[in-house]
Amino acid sequence: MRRHEITDRQWTVVAPLLSGKATDCGVTAKDNRLFFNAVVWLMRTGVPWADLPERFGKPNSVCRRFRRLAQKGVWEALFEALKAPELEWVMLDSTILRAHQHSAGQKKAPPPLNAWVVAGAE
């Protein structure tokens, strides 16, 4: 298995939710898992569609199928099915989060020199 591909266990959850199976009406996809791995690879690497490796097929074909599934609402259904129920609400305690050194705010500037002179004159 390659770096950005899903495992067999993950595929058993995802496979029934994608269209293009032999039991679906219409055209049967050549390889649903290859298509899904292409989408996962693109999302994890963040590259444009045109930079899709050749092993996944033509970038334009993968892009068109991705868009068709998005218009049908397949991706939303997939995300809902894969959502972990225990992660519906996540709370982060600030005691375990480290702030960046520059997040403390602006340094306080000393008062201008003439303010010291005026204050001392009184």
Automatic annotation (TrEMBL):
Residues 6-79 form the Insertion element IS402-like domain. InterPro entries: IS402-like_dom (IPR025161), Transposase_6_like (IPR052909). Pfam families: DUF4096 (PF13340). It comes from the Bacteria. NCBIfam families: transpos_IS5_3. This is Transposase. It comes from Hymenobacter artigasi.
